[in-house]
Amino acid sequence: MSIRLVxxxxxxxCDFLREHPADAHKLMHQFLSLGRxxxxxxxxxxxxxxxxxxxxxxxxxxxxxxxxxxCQEAVLNHAWVIFAFRRRVxxxxxxxxxxxxxxxxxxxxxxxxxxxxxxxxxxPEDAFMLEIDLAPFxxxxxxxxxxxxxxxxxxxxxxxxxxxLFEAMGKRAEHVLxxxxxxxxxxxxxxxNDDIRDLQALRDALRIAMxxxxxxxxxxxxxQTVHDLRSLGFEPGWGRDVERTRETMGLLLEILExxxxxxxxxxxxxxxMIFSLxxxxxxxYFGQSNVLGRPDTGGQxxxxxxxxxxLEQEMYDRLYAQGLDINPQIMVIxxxxxxxxxxxxxxRIEHIAGTRNARILRVPFHSAxxxxxxxxxxxxxxxxxxxxxxxxxxxxxxxxxxxxxDLIIGxxxxxxxxxxxxxxxxxxxxxxxxxxxxKTKYLYSDLYWKENEPQYHFSCQFTADLIAMNTADFIIxxxxxxxxGTRENLGQYExxxxxxxxxxxxxxxxxxxxxxxxxxxxxxADPEVYFxxxxxxxxxxxxxxxxxxxxxxDNEVIPSRGVLIDRDKPPIFTLARMDRIKNVTGxxxxxxxxxALRTAANLLIASGHIDPEDSEDEEERSxxxxxxxxxxxxxxxxxxxxxxxxxDKERNSEIYRYVADRRGIFVQPALFEAFGLTVIEAxxxxxxxxxxxxGGPAEIIxxxxxxxxxxxxxxxxxxxxxxxxxxxxxxxxxxxxxVSQGGLERVNTRYTWRLYAERMMTLSRIYGFWxxxxxxxxxxxxxxxxxxxxxxxxxxxxxxxxx
Length: 803
What we know:
Elements (H helix, E strand, L loop, with lengths): L8 H11 L1 H12 L5 E3 H14 L3 H5 L2 H6 E6 L3 E9 L2 E8 L5 E4 L1 H12 L10 E3 L19 H10 L6 H13 L2 E2 L2 E2 L9 H16 L11 H7 L9 H16 L3 H8 L7 E5 L18 H23 L7 E8 L12 E3 L7 E6 L21 H16 L5 E5 H15 L2 E5 L15 H8 L1 H14 L2 E4 L2 H5 L14 E3 L3 E5 L8 E3 L23 H9 L7 E2 L9 E5 L8 H10 L1 H6 L1 E5 L11 H16 L6 E4 L5 H13 L3 E4 L8 H8 L4 E4 L4 H4 L7 E3 L4 H17 L1 H18 L2 H21 L5 H24 L1
Parallel strand pairs: 6-17, 9-10, 9-13, 10-12, 13-14, 14-15, 15-18, 20-21, 20-23, 21-22, 23-24, 24-25
Antiparallel strand pairs: 1-2, 2-3, 3-4, 4-5, 7-8, 11-12, 16-17, 19-22
């Protein structure tokens, strides 16, 4: 059977332009008639379809249909059109077409960006502008090739490097031995001592030790073997008992004989090299109570606190299994806010509940003159303070931990930049976690950065992102989409591959998503809090009266708007910050317009403040006012209950279960959601969930099985889908149960903190190993980025402080 090769869509377009110039002119005219210099993929497809409706020969036009599904955007003026084709993830072609002659040529990305600058910012096409290109610094490093491999960097790195780890044994031997010999905890030497000086000596010692241990009972503790093993060159860290020690030594012998990625990963997972962590999260109100829902304070706080509990337990379990009675230390470094507004954010040290030894360390922001900054500051305006914060925090961390941490984990743009500054000075492995980068949230945020600068200061943020991404040893994401997007849309990180900020700088190659530093490690929800509504013995029944008042009580009792008249209707519940991206007002508008949905269910909203004057955040105040407008416009006060943000996670979890008791649903309507912790929480409580198709929820939810995807850009269709589900549930009781059970199974098998912590600890060891053995330190890149930081970021941040 012959295989038909699929024609390249871009080549098809070139052929069409040459062979059918009249139709090509009509097509270009159709695009020009839209009267805009920038056209998105959807604009191009809609214009193409409109032309097909009136074309004499639709067959000829159909030949190029596929090419516009590959085209992400077009830039055009009266003479030229440049199409940007995304052939596959992060692999682009740019075609420039002359509108009159239909002449076509492929251009480089910098030409495409220069054309954008000329049209939007009216820069002369030959004007000089700083151009950033980090590609030359990456030539010596291994890269992935297939889109399906993106986000599995450590697997690739292990396969690629372990295959020739001990080729030309002498070249790498000293590095491997040094790696095994450098581990110590304070004054205690671990793994190997100076008696083992080369690989042959290590092999010989391992064979003798294995023979010695084989003659002892498996449960013989390390303490009874320490004298003999130390005389062979071995120190504590191999195992708590004979069985564990023999397993660890056996893995190393296997690696020395014939390295394999599986054996290498298993062995490194046991090496005692992570005793303390520093987790950086400067912005917002970081605390354990009374903070959720405040400006810049939401899922990231929940994520980090749950992350800390899981990581501490995993660190403790691994150290214990290796025979070390060491209490690991985790410090969460955040900002101390003197005007704490009733929170604990003005306390320097706070123990983290549910942990042995983890704590929050708060360090204040200082102005250039040394004055302590008292009020909360938006995450968009903290850039001038971060370098001073990093210096102060470093001194505090060293004092608290009694030395440098073994791993620094940054969070979001500000935390990642601080992690970059600190890891450089301390020589510590750096991990980045973005959560939700701003660049893809706002259309053309880079191109129109000057217009956004007064409110968002993207010049600082995108510069900080570029620096931190490229200095990180490894980057953790919650989903594949976060890195590489979908067939139709760019990923958050992919959007930093090339872009321009007219008048500031142009990025020819910023980040490569095929870099093996990217790894997908999905978080979960706290299983002690977010569990199924059917587990009645575990339920927080003492909160039910309080929840009843929240949902059905009088507006005079608690800050709220609306009273639900028909209590028999199932609730549609949403819980989110009150900002534009979370799109709570969008959900209210969908509900208000859809009579069938209003008839089928009530709407319960927990978000923001009721009075806009109670908010310190400009965007939140705007959204609150919009909420009141929608409530008035659609006369929703008898069908919508709007309560203020809820900051108690035990109560929130019981609200999910309370809604599930009444056969309600959860809706997450965000325009974009990087991951979606509330989606995990709701599903983990057994509540059928409808969530945005943009971002993490598209991967979390198996559409129609464990929940449902909705498109926030098509609210009418989203409302109809929700209404149809509720109608089916009324007709067939098992339908609600089926989706509820599907969500529970999905969370319990894929999204748990135990799996997360295991993977994080393994990744940190593997990247630390390869960084040491293969010299994956990217020193040249770091020097280049130091210059970029000094000459670009610092002046931008300083200007912001002066303003």
